[in-house]
Structures are given as C-alpha cells and as structure tokens.
C-alpha cells in the first residue's frame, strides 16, 4: 500500500483546526489529489466519516477533489456548506478566474478558512524529490529538469524517474504531457498550440481563432493556464510541452490555426518578432508576414536578425534579394562560414546585382578574408571590383589595399562623392589616417585616426568591416610606443569589446611589461579566438609571454601551437607585431626557416611601402633582436641602418636606433655601461621596459668585472621595475685585477646554492651535494630570486652569473633520476 503524502505545515495546521476548513488551489499535476488522500486518512483516523457530495447531510466531513469539474449548482452548494461552518470542508480545485461559481467558493473560504496555493516546484524542491529517488542532486541536472518542466510536479517526477533509469528525461517528460492531453479536453491542445505560436490567450483572440463562443473561450483560457504546461510569467509552453500539442493535433490543424492567427494579428498590426517567426516556422506563407519579418530583421541584433531573415524566406520572401543582408548578419554574429558562402553566391552573379549590393557583397567577402588572415585576398577582391564600382566603400577599399602593401592601387580609390553620413566620414578619415601614417606626418596620422574614432562611434556596428578604427589606431600606437594612447583608444570600446580589441589590450600590457595582466588576458581567449587573425595575435601573445618569462619549455609549446597559423597566414601591415614575436621564438628555438617566408613577405611589404618609419621601426627592432639571438651581428646591420634612417622621422625610431647601436657594440665586446644605461632607459621611456632590462642584463654578462656587472644588473632591475631601485649611472669599469671583490648580496649557504643552480644541477642534486632536502633548495632559490629582484628564471641565472656564481662548479654525471634543472 503506498505511503500517504506528508502534509505540508500549512495544510496540516488547517486540518487540525476545529472544524477543518481548507481550500487547495493549484494547476493540474501539482499534487492536490495526493494531498487530499492524506487529508482523508487523517480525518478518518480522528473518527470522522468522510463524504464528497456537498448536498448530502449525512457525512461528518466533506473532502472534494477537482471542484472545477463540478456543475455550478454543486459548487454553489459547496460554498454554502463552507459559509455555514457546521462541519469540516476540504476542497481542491484548479484556478478558474472566469467562473463565477468558483469565485463564490473562493470567497466563502476566504472569510474564515485556510487558503493554500500549490506552486510549481523550485530547483531546491526538485533536488529533494531527486534525493528520494536515490539520485545525487547535482546542480546542473537539477537546473536542466527545472528548465524542461517549469516545475510541473508530475512532469518533474517523470523526468527524474528517467534520469534514475538511465533513459532520456526529455522523452519521458514529453510522454507525460502527451498522456495528460490525450485524456483531457480536446480543445486544450489547440489553445496550447496558439500559445506556442505567440498568441496572448486573450479570450477574444481565442474565440476568433478557434471558432468558439466567448464563454467557451474563457473556459479554455482558464484551463490552459491551469494545465501547468505554460510558464507562470509568460503564457509560453514549457519546453517539455513545446512540441506535444502540435503532434497531438497534426500538421494540417496546426497550420490552419497559424493562418487564422497570422491574419488576425496582421490585420491588427500586433505581431511581435517571436510570434511572426513562429508563424513562419509553422508553415504560414504570406507576403505581409514575409515583409514584416524582413523589417523586423533589419532592426534586430545580428543573431536574431539571422533567424528572422530565414523565417522571412520560409514565409515567401525572395532569398536572393536577402542574401546581402543575411551575409552581413551572419558575419556580425561571428558565422564567417555562412557569410562567406552567401557572398560567394552573390559574387557568382555579380553581373545581375545592383551596384550597391555588389559593393556590399565585396565588403563582406573582404572582411571574411581579412578575419581569416588573408588580407591579400581582401585586396584582390577590391582590385577586381575597381574604383568605378566601389561607390561609397572606396575609402574602405583604399584602407585594405594600403594595409596589404598595394599603395598604387589604393591611390586609385580616391574620395568618392557619397552621402555625408557618419559611417562614410569615418571610413574616409580612417583611409586618410592610414595613408598619412605610411607616407606622411605621424602626428597628423594620429590626429586623423582619432577623429575617425569620434565620428565612427556606434554608427557602423551594423556593417561588417575588414577592421575597426579602434584596432588600426591602437596598432599604430603600439608601433609608436604610445601605450597610454593605445589603452585609451581600446577603452572606448568597453561597451561590447570584440575579441580583437581585447587581444590588442593584452598586447598593450605585454609590450608595456605588465606580464601578469597580459597572461591573465591570454588565458581568457582560448574558447573565443576562432578566427585566424585573432589566433595569430593570440599565439604571438603567448610566445611573447613565454620568451619574456625565460621558460624554454613554455616557449616551445607556444611556438608549436602556433604552427597552423604560421603555415596559413599572409602578412599585412597590421600583423607585424605578432610576426615579430613569432620570429624571435623561431630563432631562439633554432627553427627560423619555418617562418622565413613570412619575414620575407613583411620585409618586401615595407620595401613596397617605401619603409614607413611608424610601421617599420618595430619590425626592424625585432630584426635586431633576432640577429642577437642568432649570434649573427652581420644580420643586425640592415635593421640598424633602417632604424637609423627612421630616426630622422620619429623619436620612437630614434630610441630604437640608439638601442640597436648599443646592442651592436655589446656584441662587439664594447659594453660601455653609460651607453647601455642610456639605451635601456630610452627603451623604457618609449614603452619597452622589458627590452631595456634585457639589454642591460645581457651587457652585464659581457663585462669582465663584477662591480660593473652588478651595476648593470641594477639598471636592468630599475628599468623593469621602476620602483625597485634608483637609476644611478653605471660606474666606469676598472681592470678586473685591481677591482676589489664586491660584497655578495647572498648568505654563504645561498651562495653555495647559487653556484650549483647556475651549473645546471637539479634541486635534488643540489640537495645531495649540500646535505639538505630538495624542498629546502627550492626555498633558498625563491629567497635568492626575491633578494636580487629577478623577474624570471632566465634573469635570475644572468644575474647570478654576473655575480660570479657557478664558474668553479663542475656538474657530475646524472644517473637518470628524472631531475629537472632547478632553474633552466
């Protein structure tokens, strides 16, 4: 025999009253009948006779279920029994606000009785029911059941039983809904279908669409809302019931209802976007519906616009006429594959397209190619289009062509007469600013690009563009050492920053030496950076972080992960930063040949553009560092000469040129401390503190006396961490034989550990030599690193070597103990 359902506290309290009087209300399947069964047992246990007929005077207690199914005279008789208060009365009913007899019953109970309303189950209550079935109530499955069922108790129980049995809870929930509808009012599925099509469940609308009288319509609206199959706050079918009513009715009946609702709503002008889409998906083909869907899509956000355009086509709109708008929406929503397919189809019939649609299709196709890392393909598209057909997009074409290294063709796309809109003005300023940055005055270029930002604002968020004014301006800032300006520019896009803008913000942190911020940003991007252009900047960022951290293992992993992008990318003016980092990684790992083709393309591009100082200085600085890393001073000279020529134009290039000369002198054995310090501080001043610290650190390794090496290391530390130490001038070196030994900043034990670490011993081997644990060695190394202010393991090794540690230590042969170098 099944156990009685436990009575909730408020129900138990009402049943314990003298006399018990209780009205239970709740939707179908909410557990009213189970509670009434327990109430009957409770009353019978108290010696009361229980009956169900309100007109019979014999029973001592009345317990009536499903009062909403009783005729009006029975309900009114029941209300009279409640008002008399002569015997216990417990009633359960579904809410029926349009029925006067049930309102009278509610009023009778409301005066001197308990009213208990049963609500849908909350996630916490569902978790409790799951536990009683032996399920572990994990949060996500419980939330999924709640979303599926809306908290309808019987549907929840069906879904939980399926989870317990290892079957599909969605099928089980839908089956429970089907069972309910199969044995009920045959008109109820029609009302639920109407709700699923976006109907408001207004009785007048229900009467018109279903062809019933007003009283019957009100009855059906009440029944639908009391079914437990609609959401509490929106009259929308719960997911478990979304497809069931239509399956019960059949396709023809659903389509008939949809056509009636569409005609009614279109005539009244009251069709919402969701309802219009649902009607189209239900098979309504109507010219007015199609036109409305297109209008709604034009004003919608990209993701919603895509579904609305598709619905418009199902409703009868011309698919070919919507291809441009569909491609734009797909691209803005991040679906480059669909955007590319649609523009290919458009360009295949270019001869039949109006000029405006052809220019738009070309712009979208060029944007898809640019985001896939093929700006050369974008340039090909605009060369094919030509200035005569580019129209108002001519400035966009000029920007693409110049960034792709085709200045002659770019010049042919002059300022086309176009409507003086904000988007047209922004495009013209962007093209002019980029052109000025390549062959004119950098200050004018920056001013022009900044004005493009101001005009651009939010006006072009509905147009797919090969790149944004924010990105191009920020890149020019990064190439010019204007890190604060880059941050400010990218900060303007905080309302909805794209992956590209966030990556460039991370690059700003990397170049400025804020490695923790850059690392945190890099860790965010893996799931999002799906486009090749973004992946190039992401891999360049990770390689740059690994290089600056001195972690060869991490550098190798980052370089390996970048190979797919390296193999596919084509160089353009806006991708030189990540290319430079990848170049240095390749040189460091002995795989420069794997990126030589891209380096060659970049150098050819700069040559074609007549060596623009603002853009070329950064790549040549990478070239200087690549020559140093490869220990090939001769390869440094062309880059040093290019920087020297650029120094006449920009202060940024002048600082890089001085640093390049200092590097060359260091490689030639002339590590003049004053020159090195000046160059390091110049690099820090133009936003390259890490580069300045590395220059000073490498110079420290090449001087003979410890005092000078220590002073240069202090310069490196001060440049990299300005608050860590004062920047005092490096001393003039004295012959090593005459120099007194500089006092060591380390204790004797730390000095012993340092000697062995520099020699390459593992923590275990160091501990074995010194008769201490590997963990103690690790603590010593951490203290040494803090004491010297080393920012990375490689910097620590450089500083220890400069202090003379490790010179006399001979590493013994290891026995394959799996030890890892304490500081590789």
Give a short overview.
This is LuxR C-terminal-related transcriptional regulator. The chain has 824 residues and is an all-alpha fold.
Helix/strand class: mainly alpha
CATH-scheme architecture of one domain: 3-Layer(aba) Sandwich
CATH first level of one domain:
Alpha Beta
Q: Give the % helix.
A: 55-70%
Shape category: elongated
Total DSSP E strands: 5
Mean pLDDT: 87
The strand order across the widest sheet is 2-3-4-1-5
First-last Cα distance: 73 Å
As for the CATH topology of one domain, it is Rossmann fold
Alpha carbon gyration radius: 38 Å
Quickly list its features.
about 800 residues; mainly alpha; Rossmann fold; Arc Repressor Mutant, subunit A; 43 helices
Report on this model:
The protein is an all-alpha fold and 824 residues long. Among the domains are: 9-118, Rossmann fold, CATH 3.40.50; 746-824, Winged helix-like DNA-binding domain superfamily/Winged helix DNA-binding domain (Arc Repressor Mutant, subunit A, Orthogonal Bundle), CATH 1.10.10. A 5-stranded parallel sheet has the order 2-3-4-1-5, sandwiched between helices. Mean pLDDT is 87; it is low at 724-743 and 807-824.
């Amino acid at each position: 025999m099944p156990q009685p359902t436990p009575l909730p506290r408020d129900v138990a309290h009402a049943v314990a009253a003298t006399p018990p009087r209780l009205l239970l209300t709740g939707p179908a399947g909410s557990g009213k009948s189970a509670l009434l069964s327990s109430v009957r047992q409770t009353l019978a246990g108290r010696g009361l006779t229980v009956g169900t007929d309100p007109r019979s005077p014999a029973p001592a207690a009345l317990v009536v279920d499903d009062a909403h199914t009783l005729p009006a005279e029975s309900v009114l008789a029941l209300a009279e029994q409640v008002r008399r208060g002569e015997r216990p009365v417990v009633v359960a009913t579904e809410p029926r606000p349009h029925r006067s007899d049930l309102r009278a019953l509610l009023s009778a109970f409301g005066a001197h009785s308990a009213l208990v309303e049963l609500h849908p189950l909350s996630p916490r209550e569902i978790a409790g029911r799951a536990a009683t079935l032996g399920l572990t109530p994990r949060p996500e499955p419980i939330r999924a059941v709640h979303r599926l069922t809306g908290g309808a108790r019987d549907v929840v129980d069906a879904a939980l039983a399926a989870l317990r049995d290892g079957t599909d809870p969605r099928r089980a929930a839908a089956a429970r809904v089907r069972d309910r509808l199969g044995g009920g009012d045959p008109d109820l599925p029609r009302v639920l279908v109407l709700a699923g099509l976006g109907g408001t469940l207004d009785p007048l609308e229900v009467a018109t669409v279903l062809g019933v009288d007003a009283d019957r319509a009100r009855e059906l609206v009440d029944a639908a809302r009391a079914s437990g199959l609609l959401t509490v706050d929106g009259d929308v079918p719960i997911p478990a019931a979304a497809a069931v009513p239509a399956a019960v009715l059949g396709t023809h009946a659903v389509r008939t209802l949809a056509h009636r609702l569409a005609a009614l709503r279109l005539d009244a002008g009251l069709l919402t976007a969701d309802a219009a889409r649902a009607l189209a998906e239900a098979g309504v083909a109507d010219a007015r519906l199609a036109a409305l869907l297109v209008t709604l899509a034009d004003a919608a956000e990209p993701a919603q616009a895509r579904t609305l355009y598709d619905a418009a086509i199902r409703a009868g709109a011309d698919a070919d006429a919507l291809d441009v708008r569909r491609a734009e929406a797909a691209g803005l929503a991040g679906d480059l594959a669909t955007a590319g397919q649609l523009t290919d189809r458009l360009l295949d019939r270019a001869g039949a397209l109006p000029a405006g649609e052809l220019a738009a299709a070309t712009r979208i196709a060029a944007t898809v190619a640019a985001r896939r890392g093929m700006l050369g393909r974008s340039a090909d598209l605009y060369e094919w289009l030509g200035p005569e057909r580019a129209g108002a997009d001519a400035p966009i074409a000029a920007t693409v062509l110049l960034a792709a290294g085709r200045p002659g063709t770019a010049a042919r796309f002059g300022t086309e007469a176009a409507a003086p809109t904000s988007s047209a003005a922004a495009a013209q300023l962007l093209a002019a600013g980029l052109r000025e940055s390549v062959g004119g005055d950098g200050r004018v270029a920056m001013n022009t690009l900044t004005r493009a930002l101001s005009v651009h604002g939010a006006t072009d968020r509905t147009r797919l563009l090969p790149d944004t004014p924010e990105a191009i301006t920020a890149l020019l800032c990064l190439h010019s050492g204007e890190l604060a300006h880059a941050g400010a520019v990218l900060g303007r896009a905080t309302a909805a920053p794209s992956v590209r803008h966030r990556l460039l913000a991370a690059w700003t942190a990397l170049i400025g030496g804020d490695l923790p911020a850059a690392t945190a940003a890099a860790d965010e991007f893996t799931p999002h950076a799906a486009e090749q252009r973004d992946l190039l900047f992401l891999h360049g960022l990770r390689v740059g972080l690994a290089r600056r951290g001195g972690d060869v293992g991490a550098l190798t992993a980052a370089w390996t992960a970048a190979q797919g992008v390296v193999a596919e990318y084509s160089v353009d003016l806006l991708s030189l930063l990540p290319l430079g980092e990848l170049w240095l990684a390749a040189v460091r790992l002995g795989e420069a040949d794997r990126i030589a083709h891209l380096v060659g393309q970049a150098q050819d591009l700069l040559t074609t553009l007549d060596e623009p100082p603002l853009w070329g200085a950064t790549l040549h600085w990478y070239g200087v560092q690549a020559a140093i890393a490869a220990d090939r001073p001769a390869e440094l000279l062309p880059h040093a000469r290019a920087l020297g020529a650029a120094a006449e134009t920009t202060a940024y290039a002048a600082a890089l040129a001085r640093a390049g000369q200092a590097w060359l002198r260091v490689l030639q054995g002339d590590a003049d401390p004053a020159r090195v310090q000046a160059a390091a501080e110049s690099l820090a001043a133009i936003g390259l503190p890490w580069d300045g610290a590395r220059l000073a650190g490498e110079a420290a390794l090449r001087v003979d006396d410890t005092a000078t090496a220590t002073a240069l290391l202090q310069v490196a530390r001060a440049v990299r961490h300005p608050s860590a130490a004062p920047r005092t001038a490096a001393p003039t070196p004295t012959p090593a034989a005459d120099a007194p030994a500089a006092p060591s900043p380390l204790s004797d034990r730390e000095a012993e550990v340092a000697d062995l670490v520099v020699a390459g011993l593992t923590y275990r081997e160091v501990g074995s030599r010194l008769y201490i644990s590997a963990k103690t060695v690790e603590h010593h190394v951490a203290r040494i690193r803090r004491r010297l202010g080393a920012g990375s393991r490689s910097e620590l090794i450089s500083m220890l070597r400069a202090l003379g540690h490790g010179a006399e230590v001979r590493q013994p042969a290891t026995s394959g103990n799996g030890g890892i170098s304490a500081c590789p």
